[in-house]
Design brief:
The protein has about 150 residues and is α+β, with helices and mostly antiparallel strands. The chain is built from four helices and five strands, in the order αβββαββαα.
């Protein structure tokens, strides 16, 4: 039987999901800027600002795998449950791409691109102090995700 705290959390999550669901027509998807195991990442515009769009590729429904009963993408639900954190790329919104039957996730855009590309580009020019600072930020972000019950793969 759910506790009062469980019910309150479910209500807050449902409210946040309503507020973060955006019409696909409000998103202008641009060029592909990255790729993951199950998704492609595109630069996009939403509400006059630059965002990143995570668009699931054909095949396995990785963004929705294990999604809560609301049907929201699993990855968006993870970001929502972690909340705002200075070391985690934030959730901007979610749109349902009815033409493909897949969700797309809008996230803050990392201005300098993915970390691995940045490190490769600056190879040999990162000071030990800067490397330690980046390592600390990564650890803080992963720690926040672990505290919320999520594991980054």
């Amino acid at each position: 039987m759910p506790t009062a705290a469980d019910l309150e959390l479910a209500q807050l999550r449902a409210q946040a999901q309503r507020e973060l669901t955006v019409p696909l027509s409000a998103v202008t998807v641009g060029r592909q800027i990255g790729t993951g195991t199950y998704k492609n990442v595109h630069a996009a515009q939403y509400n006059g600002g630059a965002v990143a769009v995570l668009r699931q590729r054909s095949g396995r429904d990785a963004l929705s795998a294990g999604a809560p009963q609301s049907g929201w993408p699993h990855e968006a639900d993870a970001l929502l449950s972690v909340g705002r954190h200075p070391c985690i790329i934030g959730l901007v919104g979610v749109a349902d791409d009815c033409s493909s039957g897949r969700w797309i996730i809008l996230q803050e855009l990392a201005a300098h691109g993915p970390l691995d590309a940045l490190l490769e580009q600056r190879s040999g020019r990162i000071t030990p102090v800067h490397a330690m600072h980046m390592t600390e930020q990564i650890a803080f972000g992963l720690s926040a995700m672990a505290a919320a019950g999520w594991v980054h793969r």
